[in-house]
Amino acid sequence: MSSAPPIDLSAIPESQRAAVLALLQENGALKDANRRLEHLVAELNHVVHGKRSEKLSEDDRQLAFEDLETAVAEVETRKEQAAPSTTTPRRTRQRNLGHLPAGLPRIERVLEPTSLDCPCGCGRMHRIGEDRTERLDIVPAQLRVLVDIRPKYACRICSDGVTQAPAAPWLIEGGLPTEGAIAHVLVSKFADHLPFYRQSQILARSGIQVDRSTLADWAGTAAFHLGPVVDWLTEHLKSSGKLFMDETTAPVLDPGRGRTKTGYFWALARDDRGWGGEDPPGVVFTYHPVNGGAILGHGSDGIVLSRAA
């Protein structure tokens, strides 16, 4: 399929160039997301309709669904961030609000307004109520609930309104988990190789009912927000004077065939501490299902790492 000719921004009125450039960038991001989703859907079709699908274990099926749901959540978060004012209804997230066990310890934080002085100059405002919100927080080997309390204050003399501290920002607006809980889920999944459905079972033993697809949704949202950090770290490492590169193979599920295939990981690392270097160590991992997915070479800007789509 032939691609469309590039757009000459110089031919576009200057007042419209920023909008056109933003559309081009959004279009490129959507194409990348679509390619990833198409790959995951193809693997899912192998899981469900493959010749040997009846031989796949339930664990293999769950892993395939998790990857797809995580990718969908990442794409949807990207769309929400790109157009936060859109009127398109958001997908209803699976939540467990209001069902946190009473036996879990509550860590209450009172968020007071910046000033309790009445804007009209009548004096100090009086507390008339509060809003309480609960989110699930996870620390290693301990479950707890963070309770944000935002007292409301109003003046007894005038009726100029109510003063209340703004709600703290959440990574998933209106969601159940704190940032610590999401970090725990990601570390368990990608560092400890603990699939979402097993994490769901572990939480259930503590009375927390969180579905596997909900955990995948959290991971997809976090993946979107962590993307710029990974990109920056990659560019930062590539500007180093010395780099280490390592290729490692790993068995990867091959849906539809009832066995595993060989995947390839590349580690781009810097660690000059043993040679008196002052730069902190760092590493970026790249994965591709076949060999040749990542290429390390030299260009006009020095060392270049490229990754196949």
**Roughly what fraction of the amino acids lie in strands?**
15-25%
For the termini, the CA-CA separation is 17 Å
Q: Total number of helical segments?
A: 5
Report the order of strands and helices: HHEEEEHHHEEEEE
Mean pLDDT: 80
Computed over alpha carbons, the radius of gyration is 25 Å
Give the number of DSSP strands. 9
Percentage of residues assigned to helices = 25-40%
The coarse overall form would be globular
Uncertain ranges:
296-309
Largest sheet data: 4 strands, mixed
Look at the helices and sheets and give the structural class. Answer: alpha+beta
Task: Record keyword descriptors for this entry.
single chain; 309 residues; alpha+beta; four-stranded mixed β-sheet; three-stranded antiparallel β-sheet; 5 helices; globular; disordered C terminus
Walkthrough of the structure:
The chain is α+β, with helices and mostly antiparallel strands and 309 residues long. The chain is built from five helices and nine strands. The strands form three sheets. Strands 1, 2, 3 and 4 form a four-stranded mixed sheet that branches. A three-stranded antiparallel sheet has the order 5-6-7. Strands 8-9 form a two-stranded antiparallel ribbon. A hairpin with a 2-residue loop joins strand 2 and strand 3. The longest helix has 36 residues.
